[in-house]
Amino acid sequence: MPGLQIQRRVKYQEELDADFPRRVADMPGAADLNRCIQCGTCSATCPVSSFMDLTPRRVVAMTRAGFKEEVLRSNTIWLCASCYSCTVECPKGIKITDVMYALKRLAIQERAYPRHFPTPVLAREFFHKVRQTGRSNEGQIATVMILKTNPLKLLRQIPLGLKLLVKGRMSLWTEKMSGNKRQLQDLLDYMDTHKELR
Amino acid sequence: MSQSPACPRIGVYVCHCGMNIAKQVAVEAVTEFAARLPGVAVARHYKFMCSDPGQELIQQDIKESGLERVVVASCSPLLHEATFRKACAAGGLNPFCFQMANIREQVAWVTADKGRATSKAKALIAAAVERVSRAQPLERKRLAVGDKVVIVGGGIAGIHAALTIADAGKKVYLVEREPTIGGHMAKFDKTFPTLDCAACILTPKMSSVKNHPNIELMSYSEVEKVEGFAGNFKITIQKKPRYVHEELCVGCGECVDACVFPKAKFPSEFDEGLALRKPVYMPFPQATPAVVVIDPNTCLQLTKGKCKQKCVEACQRGAIDLKQEPEQVEVEAAAVIVATGFKTFDPRGLPQYGYGRYGNVYTSLEVERMVNASGPTGGEVVLKDGAKPRSVAIIHCVGSRDKKTHPWCSRVCCMYSLKLAHLVKERSGADVFSFYIDMRTPGKGYEEFYDRLLEEGVHFIRGRVSHITDWAMTKAEEGKLVVSAEDSLIGVTRRIPVDMVILSVGLEPQPDAQEVRKKFNISCSQEGWFLERHPKLAPVATFTDGVWIAGACQGPKDIPDTVAQAGAAASEALALIDKGYVEIEPNTAEVDPEACSGCKTCLGMCPYHAIRRDEEKGVAVVNEALCKGCGTCVAACPSGAISQHMFTDDEIYQELEGILSYV
């Protein structure tokens, strides 16, 4: 029989981040976080909650109480499939999927996300590509994502890649936005300088 | 069906009560058995005897088969005796030629074996048949009722009931034991969930009470003795000496300024001890009546007999009388409404919360005074050292939902805790942590209020606090009160350091509820709350006719429910007065003057003072209006001269005969 795992579970108030709930609530769609009555509908309706280390209900409770570390390092926010079941079912009208997005953004900002987990890498690469060229390119994004998360997987993906190439479903060439690329750049710059729009 | 000529014709009706009786008792077999009992002319069983067709059955048989006595075997007489008596009367039979056998509560619900249940039902029916054969036709007597009402307790319940009755044109005596009316509500700043100001809605009602021509306000008074019966109570009220003539005092406060104590020195009862008062004081500015009172426990003249009596000098109207004696007043009343309210739980009984040990642990009632604009701090939330708290913990269920203190939910604490959380946040800007077991907000606009507080950013933590300590484990906890609880929604134990703790204390019965109960001859539930006649269908009536209860003396409740009950009690009292008479059950004792020796044994025994001795004839006489039919005199009479209607020796022996001989 393995030895008993003994861990300190008491939480001192000073270990918590009192500012965290406000930071989350200030992000788009997360303002109603405080209205949560902890009924658990979100966790029950979530198709992937059985794989999460914290259920969505607990994520909301812990966010509200300032458990920043635990929330940002949980797999929950990355397993969220954005199906919006929780948002549809929530009796208090909380946009839980948006809360998950807010937490993902904070996790990226704080670099608290799991390094080799594909979702945040994919999000970054997608945004990077669009910013660069005004177009998304699945072939390049997927390749970079696999290289950054699990390079060995690239070999296994070669047959699939070839099939996609042959059928014309994927291109190796970088497509560029036709017309005024400056306009997109202005739009993105405007977003950067006007945080209230986020 | 055997029938001797001496035996009256009896009808027996066995009720199935749906399946309640029928699933345990073989009703057909019981009916067949009943049909063979002596005197039984008709025996039937029916699904619901209390239904209209069931009653119809009895009426029809009385008319068509000439029944002279009726037995119904069904539920407890408490439930349907009146129903079946009425059915008998409607069929043309004297309603007292009826007997009920309880085969539901006393048989079907408690006897597990079907065979034994059936024989027990048979025995009870045999007993009822034997007994009813000896029943005598009796008449109910009618007595006129008065038109005055005594209301005990001058909180919001008593005030509302008094105004309702007085507005209907009836005279009310409102008896309040404190120097002022207003009760707990007068102490509150705001009321949930609307946050309207308690004083703004209560004080106009208080002055209406004082000015109403139909209300005689008897403050600082207590009921001593209650005699009589519904419609005709005689109530003795003791006016405690306030050492001030109420009719002379105008509440100017000159005496308070003149008192030899230069500064207020004694804890103010109204301010929960958070402020001080002098021995001569006005409880609060809107006290009703606006008359000062002198506390006999702190006044120098009244305790030591030595004082310059500056107050007497200062009063230009000569209202102060330090030699005032208690005064007894006797009033007549048709009805009584008991609205004596509640007491809050004393958290000293839970030492783990540190009340009395840590200065900044308060009860919710103390904080109600603190947040009150006319309270000891002018509405500011402050710590003992005068500083504003930066974090405050509110602990729900202190003295509620706990087998060691009180098992019940006090019903108002969740809501008033939410209200206090709002007010504390508003007045001090502090971070508020609210520790609850379940958030209970059942009421109009209550859940919405909880929603509002959630949005205001109060930290709600589901978990019962284990203890409060000043023993710091970390630097941040130093100099703070640390609250420990499991955050059961997150699944960790948390320690939260705060500056102030508010204990949301539960509601409990008044400490003298038992004495009051005895005075008015009403019952208490196991917990000590006054017992209503029926928890659903008679929530303000009691088992004593003419006595109603209203408000938190019946159980914890909030202001809207209290006012609703007060209105209900008032209209039921008015209904009695309007009816104009009461009917007296004919189960009274009667003295046979031929047999009475005039020994007076019964006079001393009667608990209701219903027997007097006719000096002319030298015999005892029973006052039927006062007699409650307890039977004490019947048992005590050495000459066997007293008998009790509906319980004659003949009836009881015959009933025993029945139960013993047939099974």
What does this molecule look like?
The complex is a heterodimer of chains A (198) and B (663). Chain A is mainly alpha-helical. Chain A folds into two domains: 96 residues, Orthogonal Bundle (Fumarate Reductase Iron-sulfur Protein, Chain B, domain 2); 80 residues, no CATH class. In chain A, helix 8 packs antiparallel against helix 9. Chain A is globular, with a radius of gyration of 20 Å. The termini of chain A are far apart. Chain B is built from 18 helices and 34 strands. In chain B, the strands form twelve sheets. Chain B has a five-stranded parallel sheet with strand order 10-7-6-18-29. Chain B is globular. Among the domains of chain B are: 130 residues, Rossmann fold (3-Layer(aba) Sandwich); 61 residues, no CATH class; 165 residues, FAD/NAD(P)-binding domain, CATH 3.50.50; 57 residues, Alpha-Beta Plaits, CATH 3.30.70.20. Chain B is an alpha/beta fold. In chain B, helix 6 runs parallel beside helix 15.
